[in-house]
Amino acid sequence: MTIQRVLNDSRKVVIKIGSNVLSNAEGTVDFQRFANITEQVQGLIRQGRQVIVVSSGAGICGVGAINKWSRRGDVNYKQALCAIGQVELMAAYKKYFAEYGIHVGQILLTRDDFTDEERQLHVRNTLFTLIDEGVLPVINENDSVAIEEFSLGDNDTLSALTAILWNADALVVLSDIDGVFEKDPKQNPDAALIETVEDISALLASIDITGKSSFGTGGIKTKIEAAQRAWAYQIPTILLNGKKKNIITDALEGRAAGTCFHGAW
Q1: Could you tell me the pTM of the whole model?
Q2: Is the CB of residue 83 less than 8 Å from the CB of residue 66?
């Protein structure tokens, strides 16, 4: 199953946008890339697809807004930055999607929203109402209150849980690398891209994801785990390099490389 076929066969798509995708070399928001991703998402909507965006970036938006605290390790400062940055993040989504006549709605979630059945039902109902009314849901973890015991851990997990809750046809994860490689491509230029995954257990046994680089723990590992969650519900996952201009559009037209997780369901 190719990336192009999965995307073209999918009517309900969850798109996860990582903070590395939205940030520039200075660690603040790259608004050109932000605008390009917005343009691609609205293109999917114009084609008749339903889309939910799961977006990181509150922290970098906070740094860009007030230009301080970025080096403060204290969790209170990190959460304060996210509180400030979340406003900036949604203002950007509102601005860019408004150019296409699309309204956006914000949903901030924590682990409890997926473990409590009543809260889960309310989240699901809100998602369906927004989408039915033509409003684009933009979801993020509620970083300002999500201490460890309530935290989902990362937005890769959040995107998979959202895809499952919504019964999506596909989960698209935009990161800063082209997909899953046999080893860290930033350290090993000869690393081969794995374009199709039909057995996640075999994949994990065959690649090197050790270490704490962006490829290892907290990087590709969490994306594979997200794909594994979605896989259990027969939802294919696609990993693409969101830093590349028009990557979603190119993937739809068969011109983009990435990794597609798809079982023989």
Answers
A1: 0.91
A2: no
